[in-house]
Request: fold
Amino acid sequence: MAQITFLGAVGEVTGSRYLIETDSATLLLECGLHQGGSKAEEQNRQSLAQLARQVDAVIVSHGHLDHSGLVPRLVHDGYRGPVYCTGGTFELLEIMWRDAAQVLGRELEWENRWRERAGKPLLEPVYLPEDVDQALGQCRYFPYGQSVDLCADARLLFRDAGHILGSAIVELNLQSGGREQRLVFSGDLGNPRSALMRDPESPDSADLVLLESTYGNRDHRPLEDTIEEFAAVLEDAFEQGGNVLIPAFAVGRTQEILFHLGTLRRQGRLRQQRIFLDSPMAIEVTELYHRRRRVLEAEDVAGSGWETGQLAESILPGLQLSRTVEESMAINRIHGGAVIIAGSGMCTGGRIRHHLKYNLGRRNCRIVIAGFQAQGTLGRQLVDGAETVRLFGEDHPVRATVHTLGGFSAHAGQSELLAWAGRFRTRPRVFLVHGEPEAQQALQRAMKEQLGIDAVIPEPGQTEPV
Reply:
C-alpha cells in the first residue's frame, strides 16, 4: 500500500518536503529551503545523502525556493534521478538556483571568516554552482494537463495553480491496495484577484489532499482597497520628501507591484519619477515574465504595456533597472522622491538590507511590506513593530513608517482555500501543510464548520496511508 511521510513545511510555511512510497518506487514531492533565522540555516545544511539514495523521482510544484531550493543539495549528496516540473518552473529554476548558489556562497564566506577568527570549524557550502548545472540537467518538464508515467504504479499531472509563472497543482494517481488512489497537492494556490496570473484550476476528485494554509486564518483585503492604500502611501511619501522601500519577492510579487505602479502612472497618480528595480534576479525574472506574456492573464496584459516588445519603457516609463553593485550603491545617495523595489522579500538578505540601513532612521521614509513574512525574519520584525533592528552587526532605530499591504498577496486567503477544497465531488481526506499553527488551526475549524471535513494537521515525520 502506498504511503506518505510529512518531512517538511509541517507546522511552518517553508521547507516543503513529502516522501511518497509505492510498491515500485519512492517519490519526493518537493525539496524546499527552510527560511527564517539560524535554525533554518542549520536545517538547510543537513545531509540529504540518505534521501538521495532512497528516492527514484522528485516532483516540484513551482520555483519558489521554499519548495525547490534544496534540490541542488539533494543532487550534491548523490541524487541522479529525474526532477519533474512545468516548463515555466524550469525557466525560473535556471534563474533562482543559480542566484541561490551565489547568495549561499557569499553568506558562507562571511560566516567562515567569523569562524576562522573565533577558532571554530569552517562550514561546507550547502551546494555549488556545478550542483545547479547537474540538477538542471536532470529536470524533465511538461505542460499543464499532460499525464506522465513516473513508474509502474504512479502517474503525474500538473494543473495551473495561478500563483506564479509555471506554478502547479500536483495530481498523483497511485496504485495502492489494489485500487487507484488520487493524491492532490495544492502547491501554493494563487489569489484569484492577483494581477497577471490566471485563476487556480480545481481538480474534481481526490482521495487525499495536501492543502497549503499560509493564510488559513484570514482573508486578504480587497485588491481595490489595497491599491488605494498603496497610492496613498506613495503620495504621502512624495509630499513628505521621503523614499518608498518595497522588499519584494523576485518572482511574482515584483512583477505585480510593477504592474500596479504602471497602472497608477497611466492614471496620473504616481508622482515619483525615479523608480528603481534593484535586484538582478528580479530583473531577470521580470524579463522572463515579459517574454512569456502570452501565458499570463490576457485581460490584465491588454493595455498594460506588458503586451509590447520593450520592457522598462512599456510596463513603467521611468523604471530604472539596477543590475550592478555600483548602480545599487548610487541609489543610497537619494534621500527622497524615489521608489526602491529590492530583494529579498523577507529582508533576510540581498540589497534591500542596505537600503533599509540608509532609510529606516528617516521619519519621512515609508516601508511597504507586500508579502508573507516568516517567523524569525527581519521583515517579520518590522511588521511586528520593532523599534530597533540589527543590520550588518549594528542596531538601527526604526523611525520610518511600515505599511503592510496584504491585498497584494499571491496566495489564496481563507475563503479561497475553503472554496477550492469544497469543489471536490466527494469529501477527500485533507492534511494541512505550509502554515504556521495559528493559521492551520483556524482553517481546520473553518473546514469542519463549513465543509464538514475533519482536516488533519500532521506532525513532522508522520506517515499516513494513501
Notes: The chain has 16 helices and 21 strands.
